[in-house]
Amino acid sequence: MEFHTELLPEGIVAIAGEGRLNMVSAPELRAVVEKEIGAGHTRVVVDLSEIEFIDSSGLGALVGCLKGARQAGGDLRIAGPNKQVTMVLQLSNLDRVLKSYGTAGDAYRE
Amino acid sequence: MTRMFLLRVVVLLTLLLGVNYVAWRWVFSLNWDAWWIAVPLVAAETYSLIDVCLFGMTMWHARTRPLPPPPPEGATVDVFITTYNEPIDLVMTTALAAQRITHPHTTWILDDGARAEMRDAAAAAGLSYLTRGEEWDDRPRHAKAGNINNALMATTGEYLLILDADQIPRPTILDNTLGYFTDDRVALVQTPQVFSNVATGDPLGSQAPLFYGPIQQGKDGWNAAFFCGSNALLRRDALMQLGIVGYVRELDQSIGSALRNAARAVQKSRRHPAARNPAVLAALDAVALAIAEAREQLRDRAPFAEVTYELHRRVDEATMSIVAVDLASMEEDLREIRALAAGSALGTSMAEHLAEVNSTVAVLATRDLSPLNALEAVQAALRAIAIDRPDEAQPVMPLATISVTEDMATSMRLHALGWKSVYHHELLADGLAPEDVGTMLIQRLRWAQGTMQVLLRENPLTQWKMALPQRLMYFATMWSYFAGYAAVVYFAAPIVFLILGILPVDTNTFDFFVRFIPFFVVNQLLFLIAGRGVPTWRGQQYSLALFPVWINACTTAFQNVVLGTPLGFAVTPKTRQATGAQWGLIKAQLVVMGLLVIAIIVGVLRMVFNDAEPIGTSVNIAWAIYDLVVLSVLLKAATYQGFEPKENLS
Fold first, then answer.
1. Is B251 close to A97, i.e. CB distance below 8 A?
2. Is residue B315 packed enough to be buried (19+ CB in 10 Å), middle (13-18) or exposed (0-12)?
3. Which of this chain's residues are annotated to bind Mn(2+) (chain B) (predicted)?
């Protein structure tokens, strides 16, 4: 999967992908986020609005990226999950950890 | 069909006659004058009755599965070969065989020893090779479970085949098993572990034909076939789900208690000398308020990431405020100096200057100059409020790490999440078993310790998300590891009678036999029918003869789980460790054998010269001889010189 990154104001970086965030694309997402964090963009929002489907490996990648961002003094947030993604977040209880924001722009708004 | 019916009749009969016998033993035939041997004996008999009941339940649904459908279209598979210190040749034999598996796959050598020769050998053969990353340095490595968890993050196959370095796979291992995954709820397919380097008669009891056969088929009938660590296929999505759910559960437990500790630490530090400073006191108030609000948000089920992020932001703010106050006077001085400098030279703009001071503050706050950092307890407590599991290399740990037998704990959690497992009864890998008694003993000890750790940490009986039969299937295996205590009693009872003349059973011969014999006969019949002709005697011998190992496992696992004492974990060596007979390893059993021989001699002498009661004495002599025959397996084991393939003998 191709991930697009976009710099938002205040050094926030939005990362968006299209299609299935699964065991195949999860390592790619991790690599993209690691690269951004390495470049000093530690406040990350993963835009899920164009993600049709997520599996447990996709969730694992989000958790792994969250760890990376926190250790670099930043944060990782998620935005715009569709119905299937929201359901997977609930089934895995990961909604207890990550809050879903409406859009990437909302994620770091006070 | 008729065999199943017969089996169930025998199971019911065993239950009925067993309860009849043991109840009579407790109520009517206990020799209270010799309670010290009588009560342990009847307790051991009760233990055995429960054991055989659980076995009967296991057999109730024993099923032979029909062949699975063909593999799912386009299934991607990673084959993991786990190794730590096994010889390179041995690992490569397995890896090259894995490469020849016909279904498309990627073969990985997961080398926990990070050996250069291993890496070179893998590269030369075109195999993928993985070791742990630096994130594992100074953190718990979790042995094989950690090795596989590490690999799960670096690979992408939909299904995983796990192989120990000494389990050589056959080419059809994937073709014949992947089809089970066409059922979306199947997470695990376990195939048998059978060893090809075992001498006739299996002196070390390496083969487990009853377990990799009727018992696993029986557990499978209750949807409770176990994961046994090797020769098994797993669905990645199920494992990852296990990891995520475990991660959230871990946070749920740790964050609540970390917040409580932090609140307590703040209270305590109010009495610290540094708290006399009003700025520090104000910061402590701010931190206390932030903690209190975080706890309230969690009670309202706000997401952990949001709560902890906000908390740490407010704590940082409070920390900065102290440093800022400390720096206020310093800043005053700076301003004067700069004003003087500006008078004479180009100077710095006010904005630049302020930015400089702010960055100084930020740097100071993160270093240990902050007065808040003097209050280390607060800092430490705050650090523990983390959602990235800083104490672990990976936040998500799919394979369970609560036990040295990660396999059983993992399949139990999969079942608790509602996944299905399959036992596929076809030999698809040829294993290499330990070839000396010392290595065999270490291996058995490790299995038993791991099983006991699972029992103590996640007692299956209280895993409410599993169905009751599933819980009992796990419990049955754990229960069998208490056999060491029963064995001691079974060895002691005839010795006590023959030498001291004390009979733990208070009855006449007829009453005893009329209850005992029918139970004994159906019990043997049950094993005969359930076993379907597989040799079970070796297994029966070892379950009693290894009593010191089982007892050692129970006590060390208890000390480990309850008191935190390390287990003294050892990887099973794959090559022979020593030559010559190894009597030192079976000292306890040799002592018992000596006592049994003396007891038999004394018993015979007393019968001949002392008018000892002939029937009771004969029964006990027979019992002691039986015990000796059971233990005799160790004489062969201790002198066993390893496997020699037949062609080498000619």
1. yes
2. buried
3. 144, 164
Query: Can you tell me whether residue B369 is helix, strand or coil?
Result: coil
Contact (CB<8Å) A94/B248 = yes
CA B11 vs. chain centroid, Å, equals 30
Does A65 reside within a domain? yes
Contact status, residue A49 vs residue A100, Cβ threshold 8 Å = no
Contact assignment for B303 to A55 by CB distance below 8 Å: no
**ipTM score of complex:** 0.95
- Which residue is it, tokens 């291993």? B118
CA–CA distances in Å: residue B302 to residues A109, B196, B295, B512:
17, 56, 10, 66
The reported pTM is 0.88
- Element housing A76 (H / E): strand A75-79
Q: Answer yes or no: do B237 and A23 touch at CB < 8 A.
A: yes
* Residues ≥6 apart with Cβ < 8 Å to B67: B176, B179
Give the CATH number of the domain where residue A95 resides. Answer: 3.30.750.24
**Pairs across A and B, CB distance < 8 A:** 86
Task: Flag whether A27 is in a domain.
Answer: yes
Q: What are B388-415's pLDDT values in tens digits?
A: 888 899 999 999 988 888 999 999 999 9
Which residues constitute the domain of residue A38? 3-100
**Are residues B627 and B598 in contact, defined by beta-carbon separation less than 8 angstroms?**
no
Q: What are the helix (H) ranges across B559-645? A: 587-609, 614-631, 633-639
Total domains in chain A come to: 1
Task: Report chain B residues whose CB lies below 8 A from the CB of A96.
Answer: 248, 251-252, 301, 303-304
Instruction: State how far residue A5 is from chain B, nearest Cα, in angstroms.
Output: 22
Categorize the per-residue pLDDT at B649 as very low, low, confident or very high, splitting at 50, 70 and 90. very low
